[in-house]
Amino acid sequence: MILFLLLIAFIAYLIINNKIKEQRKALIGEILYFLNLGNIDSLLKIYDDQVTVKSKKTLENYDNIKYLKEHENLGEVKRIVLMRQDIKRAIVGFLKENEFMQRPQYKYVANWLNGYLPLAEGFRVRIIYITSAGNNRGERLISFFAKDVKEFEQHPEYLMTKGEYNKMLKQQAKEELEEKKHDYYDKVNSIIDLVNDSKDGLIVKSKEKKLNELIQQLFDRTINSIQKVKQIDSDEWDILDNFISGIDSQVNKIIDDDKLISSYYASSDFAKIKETCNSLNVSRKEFNDYIEEKAQSISKLFGTRIVRNETQNADVYNYIRAYKKSITPFTAEVSAAVFGSAENNPIDYIIKYFYPNKSQYKEQIQKLKVLIEELETLKEAKVIIDNYKKDYEQYIQNVPDYVLENDEDGFYQRLGLAIIDEAVLNVEYRFTYTSGGGMAQRSFTVPMNEENIIELINRLESKLTQQALSKEQRALMTSKLRAQIKERDNYTCCQCGNSTSKEPNLLLEVDHIIPIAKGGLTLEENLQTLCWKCNRSKGAKLIV
Fold it and tell me: What is the pTM assigned to this prediction?
């Protein structure tokens, strides 16, 4: 009977034990699935690699560096180390708190899982010393942890020969230098981008010239200089940095000041001033329109400005962004030899490059003669306009200084007063020379003042045939002749009788009685003094 009871108890024990094992196995499976560690034994091996050596000394001296040099597998070692870090982090976090804690056999499974933690760290290599006879005489373990991997990555020279290390240093220095150069190119490009984006929207258009000059300085000083620097610690970087920062500061000030001025023109304060000045504007509208017509006519004589992308030829790597720059159409890009000759004989080379068609000389001479008269009229009108500004003074109290200091002409123009742009009065021809590599750049301009225009006319006339010359030869409307005619006519309009004694700011012009276009000559008997209103009503005298 006792034996029977013992048998029953043993069978019950086996059943319960099997059930416990099944519960543990099932729980282990669920937890490993939850942790995505179904292949935990292959992920957390005791050894990740094994190296066999043939001497005791090699066994004793074998270390991490020797292993990596022989196997060149730092990337694989890093992958396993990081993978095991993630596994350890997942197991530790799981054991702190999870949804399985109340399940039967959890404590056993938790202890079992905790036993894997020593394996969930590092990369392990087993080093075995086996004699030539096949006897195992010893072994040791070397490990790689995250700090070891990081150190090898920070010091790749540990795994290099001296030659390889020096080569690496040179390559790193080269890459660092190129990266620094690109940083400076980016600084230059950011300024160019800012100006390209802002220039067209400037309220004070005259500031465009200053921006052009600043960008040109930027090109001249930086493009070649950045490329020439050979050392990462060169003092030249500080010099370049200071220069670029200075240009950037000036550019931003111009743009910021322009935004302030734009805001003021949009303000109610300016609207009140403009409304107050309305009576002055109405009385001078016709005069303003007349001055605008003359300015536009001169622009037609000399062409319009064009826009092109302009950068330095020396930028062989195209690191610098193109800069959109307005330039005069009267610019000749010439060779070094021509540039030198043009400096010595500017008028001859103006004719060669800008008046190449001899069949058009007659028409061009006629336009140049009219141009002298019109430029002189606008210069006198500018004096009168400056006088008119005084009439506005009583209405323009409390105008911010930054407006009148930066945009005086624009301010008065927005009030309705005609303004003559200096660019209209200062027409010029320009010669430029740029070397093949862009290293050298030179330019000079020939202003078209009265003296140079007269010389240009005389040179063009001298090239006409004798028959054509006799028809074209005539006196020119010089400043002296204009003054003589006005004095002769007592500064009085020969048509309406108005005079400067009655109206001090009266604009008087000297008119051809028989227009030039109809064969009239610039002789005293064909000239008369007219006020601007009478001259305007007579009809346009510019040749278009």
Answer: 0.62
